[in-house]
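Below is a filled-in request sheet from our internal design queue. Each sheet records the structural input a requester submitted and the sequence that came back. We keep these sheets so that new team members can see what a complete request looks like end to end.

REQUESTER: design group, bay 2
PRIORITY: normal
MODE: inverse folding
CHAIN LENGTH: 184
BACKBONE (tokenized):
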């Protein structure tokens, strides 16, 4: 539990020092998420409920978002460290352009392990009250939000890996706390 808060605090410090200043990291009691619908890269309907039973790192991003582009390789590295049957990095693209553009970007940077979905109307940003991109939610196996980072983070770092391991072990976070990360 302390490890997760420590991880989020460390990321907040790193975020505040980086070129893409982040807004506060929010850590709190697990809270239910509203239904979130999106589509596969082939256009088939999908939703967040399909991932219940797994730890989910839900990243809202777009190819035109410079911090998102910078963050993608570390999300790919995070996924490489975990069994996708247990933990999934769900990269939800807000791009209005077709899936070809999203896939071309992923190919260009060598990202191959992420579960990539599309939300061309950016409905998830409104539903999840995400004020900007990238926004990443940590979701436990029961489908509850346990943490949120608004801005870029190093997802391949030891703090992020430790946080995911804690969630996989079923550890939850005590109380709501805020760690300041820089401008917004």
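RETURNED SEQUENCE:
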């Amino acid at each position: 539990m302390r490890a997760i808060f420590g991880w989020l605090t460390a990321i907040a410090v790193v975020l505040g020092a980086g070129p893409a200043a982040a807004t506060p990291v929010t850590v709190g009691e697990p809270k239910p998420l509203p239904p979130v619908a999106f589509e596969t890269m082939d256009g088939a309907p999908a939703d967040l409920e399909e991932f219940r039973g797994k730890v989910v790192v839900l990243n809202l991003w777009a190819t035109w978002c410079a911090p998102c582009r910078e963050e993608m390789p570390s999300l790919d590295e995070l996924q490489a460290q975990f069994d996708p049957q247990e933990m999934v990095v769900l990269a939800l693209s807000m791009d209005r352009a077709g899936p070809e553009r999203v896939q071309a970007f992923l190919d260009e940077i060598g990202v191959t392990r992420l579960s990539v979905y599309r939300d061309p109307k950016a409905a998830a940003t409104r539903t999840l009250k995400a004020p900007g991109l990238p926004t990443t939610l940590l979701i436990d196996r029961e489908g509850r939000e346990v943490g949120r980072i608004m801005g870029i983070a190093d997802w391949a770092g030891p703090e992020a890996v430790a946080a995911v391991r804690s969630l996989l072990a079923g550890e939850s976070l005590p109380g709501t706390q805020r760690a300041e990360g820089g401008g917004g």
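SHEET NOTES:
- The longest helix spans residues 2-17.
- Residues 1-24, 173-184 have pLDDT under 50 and may be disordered.
FILED BY: M.R.
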